[in-house]
Amino acid sequence: MAVLAIIIVVVVLIIAAAIAVGITIIKNAKYKELETEVLKKLNFSNWNIVPYFDELVTVKSRQALLKYDDIKFFKENKEKLAQAKAVIKRKNKIANILSGFLNDNEYKENSQYYRIVKQISTVIRNAKAYRICVTYISHAGNNLGSRELALSQYDIDKFEKDPSLLMGKGEYNKFLKEQEKGALNQKQHDYYERVNKLIDYTNENKSFLFIKGSAEQLDNLIARLFDRTVNGIKKIKDINSEEWGIIANFITQIEKEVKEVVNRNQRILEYYNSPAFLKIKETCEVLMSAQREFNEYIKEKVDSISQLFGTRVIRDETINEDKYQYIRPYKKTITPFTAEVSAAVFASAENNPLEYVIKYFYPNKNLYPEQIRKLHLLVEELATLKDAKLIIDNYKKEYQQYIKDVPDYIMEEDETGFYSKLGFANIDESVLAVEYTFSYTSGGGMAKRKFSVPMTEETIVELIRALEKRLTESAFTKEQRALMTNKLREFIKKRDNYTCCNCGNSIHNEPNLLLEIDHIIPVSKGGCTVEENLQTLCWKCNRAKSNKILNEKLTLN
User: Fold this and answer.
1) Environment class of 461 (CB within 10 Å of its CB; exposed 0-12, middle 13-18, buried 19+)
2) pLDDT digits (tens, 9 = 90+) for 522-547
């Protein structure tokens, strides 16, 4: 009986063991199935995607083992720093994927899920740091101890933020110098950017200026800015120099003055768009209709002055050459009648201005005949415009009763623009004062000098005579003729009793009548400037006659 009992117990145990093994096999099969599915979902080939240790280091003494740290590792293996950064980045990415999976997945109800959790937790733990295993191996080859260095993202970043941690003394000193140089370059760049922003602001606003002289004000301000900053910034070699503060204050002051000029003009623009001004303009437009033709005629005369020498436009140029090429160009206002010359030429031109006017502005002798004709015409046109300016001033006085409540700053700062917007012809003083300018600027831009040769009637006569002397004998004979001087103009007007020889209108009937002296036989057809070929015409008749001559020319061509 005892033997039978023992046999039964053994059989039972064997069956139980077989059942347990069967259950384990089934569980393992289910786990493998779950594991395969999870790895596939995670896009991992296995769980060994993150090793525990990333680097293995061997040292030869216990002291070396105890003192070994991350600084020593990266000093000896500088190329490993970028590798460590990449490893940390990869580990963090994997840890984030796994953590996200644990937070949300459809396998949580699976009986084998806990094993997946355990496996994932191990991988996440391995991924928490960049690990270096430091092992002390004796000369006999025995493993006498080891320690682990675990570096986080913060530990890796500190070496990038402060590269000096991995440098020797000489390398560190060199690094400091490079840092100082970099900081100085950055400071210079920041200051150049301040200058460039101010230049951009000024360029953008120059086309919106109304007040006479505003463009020149901005030119002078930017010239001062260039003189003080362009090359001065580059010359400062110490980032802590007091000169930085001086330059900063200077830029701030120039910026303030530039904005004041722009704001004054902006205020005027706002007034011209206001109902108050539009009301005045509407009233004046009704009154202006009677003299609109006269205003158009004067505008034609003003335009003809420009056409005599080419269109009067501004050109863009940098005021001061920036040899370091850090500064953007500035749109400097300059007339076409300006010659930039050397110091030697400048001195010679001051002593003999007319000779150098011819040399720089009349270089082609073949063009002298046409240029002489233009100069004759210039004398006549300027005289007419001077008379017209007096008439326009009289018209302005007559309109005062209709111009009420105009802000003082408008008349003080933009009187010419105000009347131009009302429809009055505008004869700018610069049109009546044609001049040639010689300018000298030193290489560094610090020394600047200029002088002008105004084209008065007397100077124009001298210029014509000088050009005629340079012509060949035949060309001189052909071009020589008397000038229409102010004295001659007044003589003809007085002779004709200040009355138009065509329509009979006179200043006795119309005090503001513009009278002009006309060549009966046009100069273009061989007419001379002599009393017998001159007559007084009012501007309307002279304009009509000019049109007929123009039409006749077109027909002949």
Assistant:
1) middle
2) 877 777 888 888 999 998 898 887 64
